[in-house]
């Protein structure tokens, strides 16, 4: 039955675009765009290196190339199947709303009419998360930025990214998106791991609070978690499961776990692949008959043009800078995505 559904979706989308007489297909994507800074020096954040006079010599020309590159990638995620760009896109490592607007208004994306939801985070480097959504696909009805409060061993505040929560209607169903960029692994696992556990706990509280308001709400959390699908923050705190048949009504499904166990990653470090760029969701998105909006499949978008083509980093994501030198690439992460499908009512 599942193979038949897949076949019908592929046939209908290839013949009729995103909408068909059989199924509606929605693409949800996430991309860590690796230090998407403008060229202005903001006195309130540590962005001095990302200016024309800074150590990275971040010029307007280089910024324009970065916007060209990232908007091109965003326009292509899932397109082979959906024939269009994603309906909803989570972003992280954006400096401010202006850089997100520059992406959305680029010729690669401007005709898609993306709306933007963004809040400034207290992160010391000034990087934020944001959400792009096609106005024809998704109707936001609420949005809020949730602060992650962290403290170091001396009791000093550690400033990091907020978690963005957006609720709205997708195919006439209430769907919430949480966009994350959890604390990095700087300092090693022993020091940094508890910070990501705190991030997971905040995520859990957000999900619980949404479900208290509406038990039927569908919730999709996405982001650069700086943890793999099998790490404690996901398995022990959020109780994510990697197989639909393991789910009960309060479990969260993580389709990235299956990819990770196959050796698929979204970034590489010292010859080890990690899958930090993840999606997990409430179990009510698993519907075998697809009469309601349901998860279909997940993937990592990693075409050749965003991969390093030679040298010791061959196959790795093609970065904007490598070893401090400008390489004119894209990001140090590959984007991740999921497809949602729903059987048409006519």
TrEMBL record:
Protein's name in the database:
Endonuclease/exonuclease/phosphatase family protein
Organism of provenance = Flagellimonas olearia
Q: Which PANTHER family match?
A: ENDONUCLEASE/EXONUCLEASE/PHOSPHATASE FAMILY PROTEIN (AFU_ORTHOLOGUE AFUA_3G09210), ENDONUCLEASE_EXONUCLEASE_PHOSPHATASE FAMILY PROTEIN (AFU_ORTHOLOGUE AFUA_3G09210)
Give the domain of life: Bacteria
* Endonuclease/exonuclease/phosphatase domain boundaries: 27-342
Q: Name one Pfam family in it.
A: Exo_endo_phos_3
Q: Read off the InterPro entries from this record.
A: Endo/exonu/phosph_ase_sf, Endo/exonuclease/phosphatase
Q: Which GO terms describe its molecular function?
A: endonuclease activity; exonuclease activity
Q: Which UniProt keywords apply?
A: Endonuclease, Exonuclease, Hydrolase, Nuclease
Hydrolase among the record's keywords?
yes
């Amino acid at each position: 039955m599942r193979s038949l559904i897949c076949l019908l979706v592929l046939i209908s989308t290839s013949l009729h675009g995103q909408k068909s007489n059989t199924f509606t297909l929605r693409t949800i994507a996430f991309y860590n765009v690796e230090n998407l800074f403008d060229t202005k020096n903001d006195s309130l954040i540590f962005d001095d290196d990302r200016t024309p006079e800074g150590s990275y010599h971040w010029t307007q020309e280089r910024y324009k190339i970065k916007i060209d590159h990232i908007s091109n990638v965003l326009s292509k995620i899932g397109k082979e199947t959906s024939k269009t760009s994603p309906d909803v896109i989570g972003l992280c490592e954006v400096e401010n709303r202006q850089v997100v607007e520059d992406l959305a208004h680029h010729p690669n994306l401007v005709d898609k009419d993306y709306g933007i939801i963004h809040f400034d985070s207290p992160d010391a480097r000034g990087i934020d998360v944001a959400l792009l959504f096609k106005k024809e696909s998704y109707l936001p009805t609420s949005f809020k930025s949730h602060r992650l409060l962290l403290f170091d061993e001396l009791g000093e505040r550690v400033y990091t990214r907020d978690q963005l929560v957006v609720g709205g209607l997708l195919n006439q169903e209430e769907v919430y998106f949480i966009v994350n960029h959890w604390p990095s692994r700087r300092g090693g696992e022993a020091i940094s791991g508890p910070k990501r556990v705190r991030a997971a706990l905040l995520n859990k509280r957000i999900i619980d609070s949404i479900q208290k308001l509406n038990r039927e709400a569908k919730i999709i959390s996405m982001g650069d978690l700086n943890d793999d699908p099998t790490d404690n923050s996901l398995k022990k705190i959020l109780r994510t499961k990697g197989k639909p048949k393991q789910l009960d009504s309060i479990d969260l499904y993580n389709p990235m776990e299956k990819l990770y166990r196959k050796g698929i990653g979204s970034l590489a470090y010292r010859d080890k692949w990690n899958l930090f760029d993840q999606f997990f969701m409430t179990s009510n998105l698993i519907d075998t008959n697809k009469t309601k909006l349901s998860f279909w499949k997940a993937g990592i978008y990693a075409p050749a043009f965003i991969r390093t083509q030679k040298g010791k980093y061959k196959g790795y994501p093609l970065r904007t800078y490598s070893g401090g030198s400008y390489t004119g690439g894209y990001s140090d992460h590959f984007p991740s995505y999921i497809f949602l499908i729903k059987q048409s009512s006519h």
